[in-house]
Structure formats: structure tokens, C-alpha cells
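Notes on consecutive records. When two proteins share a document, each keeps its own sequence and its own C-alpha cell line. Never mix them. Below: protein one.
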Amino acid sequence: MDEVGGAAPGALEGLEREITGCRACPRLVAWREQVGRERRAAFRDQDYWARPVPGFGDPAARVAIVGLAPAAHGANRTGRMFTGDRSGDFLYSALWRTGFASQPTAVHRHDGLTLDGAWITAAVRCAPPANKPVPDERDRCRPFLERELAVLPELCVYLPLGQFAYQVLCHVLGVRRGPRFAHGVELALDGGRTIVCSYHVSQQNTFTGKLTEPMFDAVLLRAREVAGL
């Protein structure tokens, strides 16, 4: 290990290069690049990332937060998970309140934000049309998540955001028969590992009150407790 108590930097950097250079899913490649060319009016002067998005956070993380996929005008624009959109606004403000993030906002890759004890990633690394990856795309991307979690040796709590991420995470972690997904559901695994579930931080959930700040804070605090942070 190059870094005591965390992932070897070379392993993470090598994986990041592979992720950001991936062109395995033609539909996703075409969509992410189309969005990057056409852009949203509010971001017309910005250069979009328009590539697969790597994970982000603390190499010594004990908690892994797993989303669905980058948003077309969020992470697909900024190049960092959950950065530059309303879902990210909700997520990072909660991470700041619960002691995982150095600041409550995430605007771009070089805004100074750091995480402590947490790593943020996704089941699929490219922005999908209508925010819906198809099964083949999910399955092609899954080895990246498997390898990423494997090179973060301190991880012991996995927090999937939504049912899609939960199902992918169960497959990666070898869970054959887990409980049905629901907010707050916990699943103890071997080796002292635990899955703690949350609704996704999408506007569909946060604007309707299906997921509130107190609800999400409670899940994050529970993840801290289980992880011994």
C-alpha cells in the first residue's frame, strides 16, 4: 500500500483512467457526447466533461455511497459525481451537515470540496437517456464498481441510493437473497459489512417530500454509526 489506511493511489488512478476512457456502450457514448455538444442554455459557455465519470472521495473511506448514473447536465457536465445539479445540492449539503463533506456545495471539480470517510460512485458511469440505463449497459459497467470497491480497503458500509443501485450493489457484494429495497432497510453481510438503504436524492423524491432532509440525514448518521466514524 502506498497510503496507510487507504487505497493505493496508483490503483485508483489506473482505474480512473480506464473508466474515463471507456466507450463500451454505443448508445451511452452517443448520448453523453450529444448532450456535451448541444448543452443546456444556462451552461452554453461551459465545456462539458461528456465522458464516463469516476468515483470521488476519501481513499480511506469507510462508507461508499452508490448512485444510479451521472445526470446529463450535472456530472456529465462537471466530471464529478453528483456535482452541478439539484440532486447533488441535496446530497452534499446533507454530507456537510453529517460530517462527511468539507463544504455544503458542489459546483465543479476544482471547487475545493473534499470528503472525509466517504466515497461517492455510481452503478453506471455515463449519463443515460431519460436517466434509464438498459440491462446490457448496467452489466458492462458493473466490473468498474466491483474493482473500485475492492481497492478501497476500509469500506464497511455501503449506502445505495435507490432500488437500481441497491440491486447492482447486491450483485457486486454477492447477496443472493436480500430484503426488498426500502428507505432505511439494513442488511448485515459477512466480514462486518453492512448495506444501509436510502431513497435516491433525485428531485422526483426530494421535491415531493418522499425524501426529506431529516430522513436523509438520519440514514447518513446511521451509516456513520455502523462504520464507527
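Protein two starts on the next line and is unrelated to protein one.
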Amino acid sequence: MLLNPDTQNMIQKLNQEIVACRRCPRLVAWREGVALTPPRRFLGEGYWARPLPGFGDASARLFVIGLAPAAHGGNRTGRVFTGDRSGDWLFRALWKAGFANQPASVHIDDGLQLLNCYIAAACRCAPPDNKPLPQELANCRPYLLRELNWFFGDENEKVRPNSGVLLGLGKIGFDAAFDAARAVGLTEIKTRPKFGHSAEVRLNEKLTLMGTYHPSQQNTFTGRLTEPMLDAVFTRINEILQET
């Protein structure tokens, strides 16, 4: 698969900007404070305690958008969905569907590679109670706009005409994906579609938005989201990507 030769360099530059970001004082204080008072099981570990950049394959056709890093997951390890229960569910499903080279994401040097998949988040810092404020989401939004434009915008269409899928994890991830796609001109749909598990919306002739319940403990412990349910979403994604 061909890729705009400048995209990888642009992603690296953007990720450097993200890591240095301090736009949201509340999030800065929270992410750094968590690192100073870790639970006993993580005592002695050096926390990342900065915003998290995107992670994955620079030529990906599947773009996953989560909510935010976990306080003792990505905020600790320095990689999105790494070292927490949500990541256990997500990477198992990605691996089973062929989008990852291994089923677990434990730490940043564990050898994990994403295949045809890229993961980002609506909010790049760990928020208190996993609830970013509207203004904090707005502050992060320009990063997502730039990523989506590089992966699926007009310039890349010239060298990568294949179909793609945006997968929003939970309602916030789903809404953020749609709003960003609309903002960069990837769809003419004006009304935000309704979120639901397995929701599927054709944004344009080559890009589809899908939704799934977030693989958080709140959903997995209660049975609202099961492994077969999550697997079915990735089965459908593979079907879409194989259409072209």
C-alpha cells in the first residue's frame, strides 16, 4: 500500500507537539498528581504523566478513536491503551482480527505492533473520573483533525484509493470521530449519527464510521460488552476493508 511520503514525518512532528502540550491546566495537574501518588502495585514505576500521541501503522486503513488514557494505564506506560484492562480487551480483539502482532499490550517496549491500524484518543491526557470537560475535548480536537486529514484526506486519496474505517470506542469516541471527519470535509452528513454498538455509517464512498461500546470495566464486568460482541465489530470492519 502506497502512502504519502511526508505523512510519517508529519505524524512524528505532531506527536512531539502532543507530548509537549499543556493547554488544559486541570488535566496537567491531574496527570502529574497521579504519578506522584501511585497505588501500591505501581510503586517505584516511573510514570509517563504527559499527553499520549497516537500509535500504530502510518499506512493504516483502520483508525480507532478512544476516550482518553487511563490514569494508571497509558498515563503510566506512555502508550495508548497499554497496561490497563480496557487495553487487554482491545488488543486481544485487534490481534484476533489480524490488526496486531500479539494479543497483549503491557508496556511500551513489549514488541507490540499494529498492522493496518492506528489508535488515537479524543482526549490525550488522563482526566479525573475518566470524564474530560467539553473545553478539554475542544483543546485536543485539532490534533485529531490533522491525523484524519493525513490518513484519509484528499491528498492521500491520490496515492491510497482504498476504503477506510473509523472506529469510535464509546459515545465520546464515536462522536469525536464523526465531528472530526465532518470538520475536515470527509463527509457531507450534517447531523451527528446516533451512537450504538455496531453502529455503521457510510461517511463517503470510501470511508465508514463504526461504533462499539467502550471496552472499559464498567461495560465488560457488567456484560454489556462481551468478547463475541467486540469480535463481531472487527469481523465487520475486515469485511468493509476487503470490499476494495
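For the record: The longest strand covers residues 164-169.
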